[in-house]
Amino acid sequence: MPALNFLPELQDVYEPLYPEQLQALHQQVVQEGGELASIQSRFNYAWGLIKSADVNDQRLGIKLLTDIYKEEPTRRRECLYYLTIGCYKSGEYSMAKRYVDKLHEHEPNNKQVQTLKKMVEDKIQKETVKGVVVATGVIAAVATIAGFMFRKKK
Amino acid sequence: MSSHDQLTHLGKSLSLTASTLLNPSQADDHSLTSNPQYKSILHEAVNKNEGGAGTLIRKMKDLNLPFQDKEQDKSGFQDLSLAKDGKSYFNNRYTDLRTSFKIMTHLNDEILNDIPSDVSKSTDNGRKTIKAAAENATDQGPSLFQGFEASIPIIDQLLTYDANDDDDDSGPLMLNTTEAEEKFLLPNGFTQELIGRSYSVNVLRDLSKQVTTQLDFLEVQKRLAENEINELDLKIAKLKIKRDNVFSKIATVEENEFFLQDSLGLVQDRLDFLVEYGLEASDDKTDEESTILGAGRKGAGSVSTGLGNEVSSTHPSKDGSKYLSADSNGDIADKLGQFYHNQNRNSRKITPTLQQYFEKGSMINTIQKAHDDNITCLDFDLPFGTLCTAGHLDHVIKIWDLSRSKQIGRMTGHVATVNCMQITNNMLVSGGKDALLKLWNLNVGVQSFRNVLPTNNSNLEPISSSASCIHTFDSHVDEITSVTVAGENLISGSQDRTIRQWDIPSGKCLQTIDLSFVAIASPPIQVTDSPFLTTTKATAIIGALQCFDAALATGTRDGIVRLWDLRAGKVVRALEGHSGSITCLKFDNKNIVTGSIDKTVRIWDLRSGILSDMLTFEKPVLSVDFDKNKIAIATHDEACKVYDRQLNNLQTCTSTDEASTSDPTIPVSTVETMSYQNGYLVEGRSDGTINSWAV
């Protein structure tokens, strides 16, 4: 199938749907009976949610994906991919890393998985640097306060 | 985001930092489980592989952590339809959004590691890459993402339809149907004619590209639909299993109902017995109550033995007086009246419904070799209730439990073949070739059988089983061919050309109606009867009777159905039409249905006396029974027929596999008699088999 990628690119997830579209997807899930809805319509809604800009919507989308993951063993590989993207987008880099690592184990030769893995790792590195900076700052602050208080006590 | 959230975020990134520095692979687990606040919930809920989310949500509900709407908490996912966005979904009072999100979306290692490799194509170490799957799309089908991409255009389409439709009030569905022919369009407003006229290579190339894309879309959509069908099939299978479970639940509940009703009957009988004979114990209150409460089973046992005692103690007097004139004996009349009133008193009835959930026209149960020869008559009280049968040349009436298809009683007393019987409550009336009409107590018949069977004492058996005969109405001088009970009235028709009306409470014959004029019409019909002289019903003068209050309907050998007023003892109306002797009839408040040797079933309007419908068959009709919807018909054939009055179609009660297996080995047995009630049909066959069907 040349016209349609088998899996989405990471950029794809940054193009939000119109609210009406999302509403329609939601409506379909509800109509089909919530939990009883077919995997596809639930995924559609979940993916629509992940595409949204609101972090809480993204989380709900991830939740739905997790449900699909649990329910449908044959879809697990795919789901890992979507989950990684979803977690990446919503800022849960550790979760994203966990998923993408697992996916990479099973799909070592997949280009898309490799790129995704790389992006997640890069991001984590950046975050780590950020984290270290924050951490040192905090430690410094704490140390200063502590020192200050100690001195005061004395 | 709240400040708390930010704090958690800070803590999170701290721990993340630390763990990635120290041990990158365990970053996640550590950070997740390091928060003791929800550790226990997490462990309990997430460790369950299947339905983890559901359990979790339930858990949260238990902990009083609902998602906004408490009143509408139906199932876990219903919350999703209520939650307009992710915020309200994850919102709860105990943890912040992010934490609850994390709990709910956590996948534990076990489930994460459990990724099935495609077994179908185990080429490279049983591992199949997504890409390989993509190439082999026929196996795998499109990915979920492709499905998503393919369904977005459809949704867009719908949305535009919706937008257009806002002005004129026709729904999108209407629009779809009206524009069905114009629905298939080429992109950019191209038509097939335009293609033929176009000379621009670029435009055509463009078009072909677009069409290919669209084709791909369609292909994906098709696959999606196929997948959906497969999913639905799976769901249907699952639902079927569910249905079976619920079905068996109904079955057990109904069995329990029967059991309790039985027990209630026993208690009632025991009570009556105690009161009647003044055997009430003085320390009743303390002793009796404690035994009942403490050992119900023991109590029940003593009840049954007590009844056995009653039976044997009352037996001699009854036995002795049986050979006296029954009418003159006041004691008997008392007993009879008492019995009759008892029967009418405990009339609390359960209505079994299980047969409705069987597949229509399927066999529910079968009793092989219920009698040695053909079944002459049978009747049952309720679906899955008690069945009484009698066989040709077999003088015993057997009692069966239809739900277990097991014999639970036998009653002896007749000295020839039993021709006809009817059950009301726990009372059975039977009439036989011995010109005797007997009234039986089924409870006693069952209990004595129960008592006798374990000891296997053949000496006791005939005595105790004949004790179940409450009364013998002995006035007819020839075999009894039909019998009916309605209230206190018992009507019997005999070959001696009389119909007698009996009063059950007193045991007296109230009226004798002479039907000698019927014989005059019989000779010409005898010719058509001749091939079926073997069956008793074919030559019966009074083929069928039914009584309601003072109204009596008779079907006789001359083919005329007569409606009588019992108070005057006169014919009110005669329905003429049948050309052969009538074998069976039944009426309700609207119709009277009659079956005859002339191979027809006629349905008459009771008020006007006009024939409203007629069914013709290939064989003489032997038995007919009906309710509002269906008429069950037994002809001299291998299967019962059920005529649906609403749908106007005829259904046959044959199970295909059964017929094919039994056909070659033994000659086909035919249905001799049949009884139908509330979608439950019992047939008695010429080889002594009894089958029950759901219709």
UniProtKB/TrEMBL annotation, chain A:
Cellular-component GO terms for this entry: mitochondrial outer membrane; peroxisomal membrane
Transmembrane spans: 131-150
Membrane is among the record's keywords: yes
Keyword Transmembrane helix: yes
Primary subcellular site in the record, as a coarse category: mitochondrion
Domain of life: Eukaryota
Record keywords, A-Z: Membrane, Mitochondrion, Mitochondrion outer membrane, Transmembrane, Transmembrane helix
Listed InterPro entries: Fis1, Fis1_cytosol, Fis1_TPR_C, Fis1_TPR_N, TPR-like_helical_dom_sf
GO BP annotation list: autophagy of mitochondrion; mitochondrial fission; peroxisome fission; positive regulation of mitochondrial fission
Membrane topology reported for the UniProt record: Single-pass membrane protein
Annotated localization: Mitochondrion outer membrane
Role played: Has a role in mitochondrial fission.
Notes on the domains: The C-terminus is required for mitochondrial localization, while the N-terminus is necessary for mitochondrial fission.
PANTHER family (alphabetical): MITOCHONDRIAL FISSION 1 PROTEIN (PTHR13247:SF0), TETRATRICOPEPTIDE REPEAT PROTEIN 11 TPR REPEAT PROTEIN 11 (PTHR13247)
Family: Belongs to the FIS1 family.
Stated name of the protein: Mitochondrial fission 1 protein
Annotated organism of origin: Naumovozyma castellii (Yeast)
Lineage of source species: Eukaryota, Fungi, Dikarya, Ascomycota, Saccharomycotina
UniProtKB/TrEMBL annotation, chain B:
Record InterPro entries: Caf4 (IPR021653), WD40/YVTN_repeat-like_dom_sf (IPR015943), WD40_PAC1 (IPR020472), WD40_repeat_CS (IPR019775), WD40_repeat_dom_sf (IPR036322), WD40_rpt (IPR001680)
Subcellular localization(s) per the UniProt record: Mitochondrion outer membrane
Transmembrane parts of this sequence: none
Membrane topology: Peripheral membrane protein
Region (Disordered): 295-322
Keywords: Coiled coil, Membrane, Mitochondrion, Mitochondrion outer membrane, Repeat, WD repeat
Biased composition, class Polar residues, residue ranges: 302-315
Annotated PROSITE patterns: WD_REPEATS_1, WD_REPEATS_2, WD_REPEATS_REGION
A Pfam entry, by short name: WD40
Gene3D superfamilies for this protein: 6.10.280.220, YVTN repeat-like/Quinoprotein amine dehydrogenase (2.130.10.10)
WD repeats: 368-410, 411-443, 473-512, 552-574, 575-609
GO cellular component: mitochondrial outer membrane
Coiled-coil parts of chain: 208-242
SMART domains noted in UniProt: WD40
Source species, domain of life: Eukaryota
GO biological process, one term: peroxisome fission
Entry's Gene Ontology molecular function annotations: ubiquitin binding
PANTHER family for the chain: CCR4-ASSOCIATED FACTOR 4 (PTHR19855:SF28), WD40 REPEAT PROTEIN 12, 37 (PTHR19855)
Family according to the record: Belongs to the WD repeat MDV1/CAF4 family.
Name of the protein in question: Uncharacterized protein
